[in-house]
Amino acid sequence: MTRATVSRAETWRGLLSPVARAAAFTLVSVVLVALVVRRAREDAGEPLRCGDGFVAIGARCCGEGQTLSSSSCAAEPRRCGPDHERTPTGCVARARRVTIPGGSVRIGPSDWEAQGVVEPRTITVATFRMDVFEIDVARHAACVRAGACAGPVAPHDPGRAAVLSFDEAAAVCRSEGARLPTDDEWTFAAMGTTGRRYPWGDTGAVCGRAAFGLVTGPCARGAAGPDTVGARPAGRSPEGVHDLAGNVAEWTTLASGERRLRGGSYASALATELRGWRGDGEPREAQAGARCVAANP
What we know:
Layout: H1 3-44, H2 46-49, E1 54-57, E2 60-63, E3 67-69, E4 72-74, E5 84-87, E6 90-93, E7 97-100, E8 103-107, E9 121-125, E10 128-131, H3 137-145, H4 166-175, H5 183-191, E11 249-253, E12 259-262, E13 279-280, E14 288-289, E15 293-295
Parallel strand pairs: 11-14
Antiparallel strand pairs: 1-2, 3-4, 5-6, 7-10, 8-9, 10-15, 11-12, 12-13
């Protein structure tokens, strides 16, 4: 090989090396982006949207073996989640309360999106017990049968979150020897002592953790109401409370006697509406429900 040929070969190697490196970098970048997109789709998609024992049908998480009829989970399920009882008409969460140890949390500074939206303040609450699950149709129906609630009762789907007015929600809690949470209690349960953004932590507002954006938004599937309570266990708080974000917005009471909805709902289109510090000053009763609290024994 002549010296000129060697020189030309070395020149081509010098030119191709950066091109090859750039091509390799581009290929790796494309693969990484594809993996991220795939994971995002999995988080929002059918396989991972609902917890163990449930299947995604339309906008709902129904028990295995159920079908969807006019937005309701219908027929007897073959299997339900581990926190649910299998009944002839659906999966019903086993109602119970968990202790929320008292403490303090600073609202505002821990989340830049809260700046200018909420006034920074510290809230302090005593220990209390809170429902693990939102009030469902079965619990509301039991209150109506006992004569403590006015109704009406949804005719099907006993495990679905009940849509309730403030007065009806308060009546359910009274019938169980409990009450609606104060706004500070609810906020503390959602944010904990660390001031986390969401009930489960600071990141990861995906369809597998909260029933939100089901009408329009990232999880949209044409929802006509809330979902089965406790069907997304990945979104529970460290204390074990389910659905503090999404599904139905939850009634709370302020010291002034005013009422407020917390936690966003199935119709919330943006993840920011699920923030623990976010309150709805204009209650949307069509998307409202509740959970109860009681004094620590």
